[in-house]
Write a structure and sequence with these properties.
Layout: H1 6-9, H2 41-44, H3 47-52, H4 58-65, H5 71-82, H6 92-97, H7 107-112, E1 137-139, E2 142-143, E3 149-153, H8 187-198, E4 205-209, H9 218-229, E5 236-240, H10 243-246, H11 249-253, H12 255-270, E6 274-279, H13 289-300, E7 305-311, H14 319-331, E8 334-341, H15 355-365, E9 376-381, E10 386-389, E11 395-397, E12 402-406, E13 415-419, H16 427-434, H17 436-451
Parallel strand pairs: 3-4, 4-5, 5-6, 6-7, 7-8, 8-9
Antiparallel strand pairs: 1-2, 2-3, 9-10, 11-12, 12-13
């Protein structure tokens, strides 16, 4: 293992969570925005209002905010979006939770609305499908990388679009930067996936994702769930959705969708098969009293919910914030499953933390609550090596920001890279990354060290 100079490797102390994890705000916070000032609670807390009033352009955001922010903010946002791989889409719920008195530093704004001054050059080793999900696709929309499980991308839309989306190659509308690989909700394509799963008896675990399963119709939830449950060797289903974090109202007011999901869960349990919901909270500010109500309803109906967060610079790369998130999720009976290190994604280098910072946070978080509610910090390695415990690197050259991981089960004998953001490195290291020949030699040297 290599180390940087002591001044560059000093770890910050563990910090305490900033507030009580049992505090769930129940005020009418949306009324602070001119566009929602007259919206009553019963309207705002409807999934139909949330869906029909999603913010999908700078102009719509301006109409909601009025004079709450300076005009320069919208100019920076428009310029940032022109270089983004994802189009903009936010629910009124999310928009209202942003601190518009200080939007530049707000952790929710950072995840969804890019401001031009904060955008950094992409890492030179970035590729659009950095995790090789398409390369490992057995049929369109079905990635089979791990021996006993597969990722089923059922559609290519979401209730909101995250700046940092790993699937920016396929999710959402085309942008100025990216022409997408489209995976629309299509029964013919789904049937091809089902047929592959039927004839592949090793597959026991299917992640049903997208896009986002929140955008599937209720009958689609039932159709997909039942079709997979009927395959004898399939034992576990995971419906993946960021929906509970960005539109919890749907779980309370869209009875058809909620009951379709619960119906699949109940049928699975009767067949001695596990069906769970995996969601995606990144910051405690995303959680309100409505969120708690939605999670309590699912829990009362026997639905297991797990969370997969993404570690992001300036959002949650702080041990106190991560402790609060884990504790608040635990209080809602949502199990913290993974914290992913931010993947290499175009246009969001400013959000990626270093490997060292995440390892430090993981040590601070471990022990704050029961082990089954404590997340594992993982790196999804470049090139299709799959998820690896962040502590399990073979070599970590901190001076040059290069880590090497092995993946003995997924790709025996192969080694895979993960890179720190270049702007976090020393001046000398940043200079080395500029020259392609020097960069390739650095990478080769660290790879050789890993090979022994």
């Amino acid at each position: 293992m290599r180390f940087q100079d002591p001044g560059l490797t000093s770890e910050p102390p563990c910090t305490e969570a900033p507030e009580d994890h049992r505090l769930f705000r129940r005020d009418e916070f949306w009324r602070a925005l001119p566009g929602y000032a007259d919206v009553p609670a019963e309207t705002f807390d409807s999934h139909l209002f949330q869906m029909r009033n999603s913010v999908t352009s700078v102009g719509k955001l301006m109409a909601v905010l009025g004079d709450r922010v300076q005009p320069g903010f919208f100019k920076e946002l428009a310029e940032g979006l022109s270089h983004a791989p994802m189009s903009v889409r936010l629910t009124p719920f999310l928009v209202s939770l942003i601190d518009w008195d200080n939007p530049t530093d707000d952790p929710i704004r950072k995840q969804f609305l890019p401001l031009a001054p904060s955008i950094l050059p992409d890492h030179p080793e970035l590729h659009l499908d950095s995790l090789h999900e398409q390369a490992d696709a057995a049929v369109p929309g079905l990635t089979h990388r791990y021996h006993d499980r597969a990722l089923f991308l059922t559609l290519d839309t979401c209730p909101v679009y995250c700046r940092f989306c790993t699937r920016s190659y396929a999710v959402g509308l085309d942008t100025d930067e990216v022409e997408k690989v489209h995976l629309s909700a299509n029964r013919e394509r789904w049937e091809r996936a089902f047929e592959y799963i039927r004839v592949t008896p090793d597959l026991e675990d299917i992640v049903i994702s997208g896009g986002d399963t929140y955008n599937l119709r209720a009958e689609h939830i039932t159709y997909i769930g039942d079709s997979l449950l009927e395959i004898d060797h399939v034992r576990r289903l995971r419906f993946a959705s960021k929906g509970p974090a960005v539109m919890p109202q749907k779980l309370l007011t869209d009875d058809a969708w909620r009951e379709a999901l619960i119906g699949v869960v109940d049928r699975g349990r009767a067949m001695h098969k596990e069906v769970v919901l995996h969601t995606h909270f990144n910051h405690p500010n995303e959680i309100t009293g409505v969120t708690l109500d939605a999670m309590n309803l699912l829990y009362s109906r026997g639905v297991v919910v797990r969370n997969q967060a993404v570690l992001q610079r300036g959002v949650n790369d702080n041990s106190g914030i991560m402790k609060l998130l884990v504790k608040r999720l635990s209080f809602m009976n949502v199990q913290s499953y993974y914290v992913f290190f931010h993947d290499l994604v175009a246009g969001v280098e400013d959000l990626r933390p270093t490997l060292r910072s995440g390892l430090t946070i993981e040590k601070c978080v471990r022990g704050v609550t029961a082990g089954y509610n404590t997340p594992t910090f993982v790196v999804d390695t470049l090139g299709g090596g799959g998820k690896r415990d962040a502590h399990s690197y073979e070599v970590y050259d901190e001076e040059n920001g290069i880590a090497i991981f092995s993946s003995p089960t997924v790709r025996p004998g192969e080694l895979f890279y993960y890179f720190d953001p270049i702007d976090t490195l020393s001046d000398e290291a940043r200079t080395r990354w500029v020259d392609e020949r020097t960069r390739k030699q650095m990478m080769a040297d660290v790879m050789q060290e890993a090979r022994g």
